[in-house]
Design brief:
The chain folds into three domains: 68 residues, 3-Layer(aba) Sandwich (DNA Methylphosphotriester Repair Domain); 105 residues, Homeodomain-like (Arc Repressor Mutant, subunit A, Orthogonal Bundle), CATH 1.10.10; 281 residues, Endonuclease III, domain 1 (Orthogonal Bundle), CATH 1.10.340.30. It starts with a helix and ends in a 14-residue tail after the last helix. It has 492 residues and is an alpha+beta fold.
Length: 492
């Protein structure tokens, strides 16, 4: 995708924060690439090149600016909107799908050949999957160098490099200096026993209180909790399990992670970002939703609402099924029983956090009659678990959204509301819409709209590609601050 030079250069001149992460500026006279918000003097037009990704700038021979830290910029929200091959590939690469050079595995997941995947990514982003994965590793390493006291050898393997030599070569290519030269005194942030603490950036505004309140009301006992403005939960990753804590503070989000194997750090960071929707572009969302006079007052009053995400798509889908047609409190009780009876114990208990959410294999083979679910709901949950366990449906941000929706709807007991809610929170689809949601319909009626699902769908066309955020604002018109509550309506 070509970038319009004049538009990018004007954004660079004004240091427009709306474009932060959307493109990167490289300067031929210095060999450095920057974020468009870099405070450095604006370079001459003839010396400027624009790139869609940091990886493309690195591949072209530019090194990262030490002043504006382009490696720390929030990811472009454009890729989260897109449901095509490129968008899916970038989300999977961010999750670590190419760690170890497994491009063939990524291509297989996307049902294309490695050559076709490489060609598409070069055309759209400016470089192939290996280069994107390499830059992702250097960005993780730079974050650890800046914010922790870990040794450089620990950082190398934690960031996903196969050897110290590969680590040094990649860091020199990205920053034109040895990793030791990047070391500065880390921020004084208490990490806790056996943990690591990092700061995650986002695009302001960010209504952290609202998203934490949403998660707090639904917190599963022994699996997650929200206390003193912090959200904590257990998490299972590729190599290990542990706990993750997220706390909005000082214009960023503080992430504390405690896991058995720090090689799981990068995917854990990405899941933390997804959970709080930190890569959203609130100004772009507000420009569309705020243009509707019916939503404009709420958008202006509550800027920066984020879609609560998840750390495990299967868990999110299971909770959606259990919660059909019952209150939030009742759903929390039932899901808590599920975790208590079928979830594995955390290797090392962390306060009140002691259990992992059960894996789909455990639920598919279990007797669910003691949980208090209706027979029909238990059967739906079991079929969902079996489908996920056997690979019949993918529930992550790299999934094909339309295909996943169709496969979910094919499971008896899962209807449009549940499929859309899963797409919204598990797949990260910013355009998912809950036209049959009772709260959405009630809010629409209060705003003077025809509340029938068909009419709502037609009206919601003006909210694309941000219809999921429109759902949040419609809920907000009915809720007190920080207590967003969907009203479920689903066929059994």
């Amino acid at each position: 995708m070509e970038l319009d030079f004049d538009t990018c250069y004007r954004a660079l001149q004004s240091r427009d924060a709306r474009f932060d992460g959307q493109f990167f500026t490289a300067v031929t006279s210095t060999g450095i690439y920057c974020r468009p918000i870099c405070p450095a003097q604006t370079p001459k037009r003839e010396n400027v090149r624009f790139y869609r990704s940091a990886a493309a700038a690195v591949a072209a021979g530019f090194r990262a600016c030490r002043r504006c830290r382009p490696d720390a910029a929030p990811q472009s929200a454009d890729w989260n909107i897109r449901a095509d091959l490129t968008g899916r590939a970038l989300r999977l690469i961010a999750e670590g799908a190419v760690d170890g050079g497994r491009v063939s595995g990524l291509a297989g997941r996307l049902s294309v050949s490695p050559r076709h995947l490489h060609r598409e990514l070069v055309a759209e982003v400016g470089c192939g999957p290996l280069a994107l994965a390499r830059v992702r590793r250097t960005q993780t390493a730079r974050l650890l160098i800046d914010q922790t006291a870990m040794s450089l050898s620990e950082i190398a393997f934690t960031a996903g490099f196969g050897s110290i030599r590969q680590f040094n070569d990649s860091m020199r290519a990205a920053f034109v200096c040895n990793p030791s030269e990047l070391r500065r005194k880390p921020e004084t942030i208490p990490a806790g026993a056996g943990g690591i603490t990092l700061r995650l950036e986002y695009r302001a505004p960010f209504d952290g209180a609202a998203v934490l309140a949403y998660l707090s009301r639904r917190a599963i006992p022994s699996v997650e909790e929200a206390i003193d403005g912090r959200y904590r939960r257990t998490i299972a990753l590729g190599r290990s399990a542990g706990t993750i804590e997220l706390e909005p503070v000082d214009g960023a989000v503080r992430l504390r992670l405690s896991v058995e194997d720090l090689r799981d750090l990068a995917p854990a960071v990405q899941r933390g970002r997804d959970l709080l929707d930190l890569d959203a572009d609130p100004r772009a969302i507000a420009s569309v939703l705020g243009a509707d006079p019916l939503l404009a007052p709420t958008v202006a009053a509550r800027p920066g609402l984020r879609i609560p995400g998840n750390v495990d798509g299967w868990e999110m889908a299971a909770r959606a099924v259990v919660g059909q047609q019952i209150s939030i409190e009742a759903a929390r009780t039932l899901v808590g029983r599920l975790a208590r009876d079928l979830g594995e114990s955390l290797p090392q208990r962390d306060g009140r956090l002691e259990r992992l959410f059960p894996r789909p294999e455990a639920v598919a083979d279990a007797d669910l009659s003691r949980l208090g679910l209706t027979r029909a709901r238990a059967e739906t949950l079991r079929r969902l678990a079996s489908t996920v366990a056997t690979g019949g449906v993918a529930l992550d941000r790299g999934a094909d959204r339309e295909e996943t929706r169709a496969r979910l709807l094919a499971i008896p007991g899962i209807g449009p509301w549940t499929a859309s809610y899963i797409a919204m929170r598990a797949l990260g689809d910013p355009d998912a819409f809950l036209e049959s949601d009772l709260a959405v319909r009630r809010a629409a009626e209060r705003l003077g709209l025809d509340p029938t699902p068909r009419s709502l769908l037609a009206y919601a066309e003006r909210w694309r590609p941000w219809r999921a955020y429109a759902v949040l604002y419609l809920w907000e018109t009915l809720a007190t601050a920080g207590s967003l509550q969907p009203a479920r309506k689903e066929a059994s």
